[in-house]
Structures are given as structure tokens and as C-alpha cells.
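Sanity check

After download, print the first record. It should look like this:
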Amino acid sequence: MDERFSRQIVLAQVGKEGQRKLASSHVLVVGCGALGSHTAEALLRAGVGRLTLVDRDVVEIHNLHRVSLMGPDDVGKPKAEVCANALSRLEPDSKVVDQTAHLGPTEAESLVPHADVVVDGLDNLETRYLVNDACVKHGIPWIYTAVLATHGMNMPVRPGVGPCLRCLFPDPPPAGTLPTCASAGILGPVPMALAAVQAGAAMRLLLSSDAENERGTSAAEQLLYLDLWGRHVDSVSVTRSDDCPTCGQREFSALEHTSRTVVLCGDAVQVLPKARAELDLAGIARHLEGLGSVTWRGSVLDVKLPEASLVVFPDGRALIRGTQDPARAQALYDQYVAR
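Expected C-alpha cells:
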């Protein structure tokens, strides 16, 4: 280990003890697209010993200009699975676990308490509020990171010490009102740059002493803003709010309910099953073969129908493309999947 990480161990901020601490650490990566995959790779190469990767989507060809660990042969395959396989080839001794799933309240309550740090590879605020609730509830630090167009933002969240996401954004905007990568675009190197910032922040949290993490119950955090095209960096001090419903009042509304339909960044609507159950994908494939094109992409089913396309996962979820109307997407799901 000493030889592989020798240039990192020589840093006063790390040292041999710090490197051993990284090797025993567990980071939960929520979202394995451009931001999450670059962050996961940076942490693995830094010596973090255990990574859990969670993502609900599959690789699409328009992802390839900005993602790490994925290539043309991976299009249509689950992102978490592709990332985990690539990371395991890079470092066979690390423990990398992938979970192709929607991070809902049940999954958050199950995964977050077992992590040392949670990092953000998400593309929507709804799931970020869920991660924030789970991390504050269980006292697990996490790092908010978001990218769009040519810029991005980053802020560590240390429950019980500094502000949380709701201190920064008290009221979630209405669904569909924020720009996305599909509507505003994304400069390829931007996720890589913000992933480097995020990975460095995660390492700092993992290597900080208990005294440093607990110092000052009203400590402020810096929200970092980086515009890669304009070569502009700025930071804003964010303070913890006693009136914050999450970290002040300890109300965790995002953990209490979830919608069956979610409009994803891009042109897809995710539909969740009414109940958890493994689907008979082979049976669904036989049922739909006469209606359109049916292709297996690893463990998922890719179905092209005249009115829409569906990606169906073994856990019962489906991504519906061809409509951005949640009601229409759920109707298509009920017609072709929920039998």
C-alpha cells in the first residue's frame, strides 16, 4: 500500500495513519452518471476501501461525452453495474457494491446509516432532499454537489455542526421548473471538475478528527461556485438555521412518502411498481415481442413500441420515454408492464 499511495502519504494532511483510515472507510455514491462516476473513481484511486454505488438509470449514448468508466458498448446497461465492474478492474482489492435501484425512503434508511460519507451524483433536488433528511436523521455527513451548463456548486453538510441542504434551499421549487442538462446542456469537463472538488471534500471529512467534526454547533460552511468556461470561482458562507425543518426541528418529510412517478433529467419518466416484487422479465418479453422490438441489455429489458419506449428493470421499475407526462407514463406502465 505504501508504494502505491506514496505521493499521497507524504502529504501532511494524510500520512500513513490517514491512508489506513481511507482504506477502512465506506462511501455511498448516490447517482453514477458523470458526476458520480468521476467522484467514485477519484475516491477509489485515493484508496477508499469500500464504495456502494446506487443508480436507477441505464447508460445512454448522450452520456458518453462526459462520463467516466463507460463506453459505447455499455449503452443500455445499468450505470451502477457498469461503474462497479470498471472500478473492480481498476482496484480488485477494494470492495465495490452496486445497486440498480431508485433511492426511495426505504433504500435511504437502509443504506445511509452504514456509510461514513455520502457523495452526490444526483440530477434532481427531490432525491437530494431525501438524502439530506436521511443523513441529518442518522448523523452521516454528505456533500451536496450539482452541475449544469458550464458551472457547478458544492457544499459539505455536517449534521449537528453546520447547515444542511434545507438551510440553503428552504423551499423546493415546483417540479419541472428548474433547468436540466437536457434543456440547458452540460460542458463535458464540468462534472469532472466538480467531482474532484467533491472527492477532496469527502477525503477531508473522512480524515478529520472527531474534534474537528464536532467543533462549533453553529459553524458555517462555504458554498463553492465554479464556472469553468468563465474561469470564475466564488464562495458564499451558509449558516445553520434554527428554524430549519430538517436540522433545526428534525422533521424528515422526504422520508415519509414518495411518488410512483418521477420525471428524470432528459426525456424519461420513471414509474415505480405498486409493490416490491421481482418481475418475470422473460414473460414480459414474450408478451411484448409481437408489439415492438424487445432487446436484452444485461439484466434489463429494452422495449421499443410505436407510442413509446420502455426500459424495464427486474425490481419492477420502468423508464418510459416518448412522454414527459407522468400520468401518461403510468398508464403505459400499467398497460404493458403491470399485468
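If your output differs, re-run the checksum step. Summary of this record's structure: The two ends are 53 Å apart (CA to CA).
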